[in-house]
Amino acid sequence: MSEFDVTLAYDGIAVDPGSPKMRKSLQRHLRRIKPRITKVVATHAHEEHVGNLNWLSELTGAPIYVSEMTARFLTSFKKLPWVRATIIGQPPNLKQPYQVPSARRRNGH
Which domains does the chain have, with CATH numbers? Predict the structure, then answer.
């Protein structure tokens, strides 16, 4: 399985751009596929999902979108235990600017 298999790029949106340890794989796929990324999104704050948020945003110029809870976790990301940091990679803290989309309730949906 490759990093791009885990990172979903759909209609210009890169979702969960992976762990820091998988960056080289992600770079290879981006060079090969050349997607036009207009948004970078994290669904939650696990390190295997958020390790490349800042990097991909800086590379593409695309804004980062995270939930309010994810932003709280990522602006002061705790140091990972040694094993997880070695295998997955320690993600950097989330840099500004990032956007927190507003959620709207619609008739129970």
Answer: 3-87 (3.60.15.10)
